[in-house]
Amino acid sequence: MRRISKLTRVAVGVASLALAATACGGTSSDNGDSGGSSKQDRGLAIAYDIGGKGDQSFNDAAFSGLQKAKKEFGYKTADVEPTEGETDADKEQRLASLARQGYNPVIGVGFAYGPAMKAVASKYPDTTFGIVDSVVEGDNVASLVFAEEQASYLAGVAAAKATKTKTVGFVGGVDIPLIHKFEAGYKQGVQDTDPKVKVISQYLTQTAEEGGFSSPDKGKAAAEGQIEKNADVIYQAAGLSGQGVIEAAAKAKVWAIGVDSDQYKQEALANYKDFILTSALKDVGGAVYALAKSVHDDKPLTGTQVFDLKVDGVGLSESNPKMNEVEGLQEAVAEAKEGIIDGSIKVKTE
Question: I want to staple 248 with a disulfide (CB 3.0 to 4.6 A). Which of 111, 223, 238, 315 is the partner?
Answer without folding.
Answer: 223
